[in-house]
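User: Predict the complex.
Assistant: Input components as received:
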Amino acid sequence: MTSRLTRRQRRRISQGAQYAVFVAVIVVIAVLADWDRLQNQFAQADLAERLFPDIITTALRNTVVYTLSGFAFGLVLGLLIALMRLSSVAPYRWAASVYIEIFRGLPALLIFIFVGVAVPLAFPGTEIPGGTYGKVALGLGLVAAAYMAETIRAGIQAVPKGQMEAARSLGFSHARAMVSVILPQAYRIIIPPLTNELVLLFKDSSLVLFLGVTLDERELTKFGRDLASQTANSTPILVAGLCYLLVTIPLSFVVRRLEARAARAK
Amino acid sequence: MPTPNEIEIRGLHKSFGDNEVLRGIDLEVATGEVVCVIGPSGSGKSTLLRCVNLLEEPTRGQVFVGGTEVTDLDVDIDAVRRRIGMVFQQFNLFPHVTVTENLTLPQRRVLGRAKGHAARVARDNLERVGLADKADAYPAQLSGGQQQRVAIARALAMGPEVMLFDEPTSALDPELVGDVLAVMRMLAAEGMTMMVVTHEMSFAREVADRVVFMDEGRIVEEGPAAQVVGEPRHARTRHFLTRILDPAAAEPPGPDAP
């Protein structure tokens, strides 16, 4: 059959087919899913009510604290590794590359177990300062640093070479030029990807549950799981999930705004 | 070692890998003298200039600025560079701070000047280049010509004893070239020692005390501006000047063209 459809006809058929598939999928899910059981298991209003205010004052608060401390540690370490990657001393470059490849290549979970088990074994008698909070900052920070180092390196390299030359020709030392001229410019370039990293860390903070935490140190995932098993109902998981989205969706929105602004500034 | 020469270059060689860009340069620039370096692209003139403040490290040879050997491995290069102002083709203003901060940041961080002192020097130098009214603008808000004048003011604010210009007008729209050249002419008249890599032949003829013609990493011809630009002795200089001064007159490249 030789079809002699006009462009308008083709577009109508193509769009019609796509809408039809979309509606069909929704209908199939809506009809086949057992909504009563789902509601029973995941959306018990009275159960959800009992989670408050602890889920906010303890769980969400701890999630935020873990994330921010991991981010802060990761940022400092990441900056250090990025500068090592760009160093003129070859062993520094090698060490930085090895670090980045290892910590980007390992699941965050393994690193958490490593921090929880191997560090106390390797340095007997020493405690990671800050207890659980310190361990989490270390675990999250070690992983985040590897990603952030690459982001920061790319940001530094995106600053035109002439900026360093201008600074050096004015008499800045290399280090001074880096701090006063290059990093402030790189900082603007790397803010959106770093905010993205913050979103990832926020979710990865759930791995804390593998470190063994006290009741007061529980974050959202651990809190939700514990209460779900206590009540033999999954509603706490759903509420914990909503708490994550409460933070991650606005953050993603901020990232998009920052990216749009950076694109306009170019 | 006392010397009347502000810049002395002896037996300078520079290679990038196998590419020999400078093949033995000897050149002096006396205190207060304005020397223009001209030549075809790839002749090594920018590299020569960049060797003077060691943005490029020479492969062989010596460079002295104000009696200090720049090429000495034990010299404090940051201290030497403070005495050498440099102006780039691409301006290289710091885009993240205002015009005034472009001038005060180096003074404060490098020279350790107090805030008020640095601000005063910045204002004076912006006035010299005629841009006092742009003090609070960001570089991106300025035209290329204005940016280049700010870049000159930024270098001057450090109180240099010599200024290097690396094709300062090559990135500018033709109608903006004049303002930048006017500032450079003013500096020359004030007695600043200047080394200028340029394609502006009228500037070279009027302002330069001496013109140096370079080709293929060597100095082919040097002398008073009127002579090198007006009555060049060397065939290569003549050929180059014809092409620069009247590009439309160039012959179409024939089968034996380079």
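DSSP finds nine helices and ten strands in chain B.
Let me know if you want any component modeled separately.
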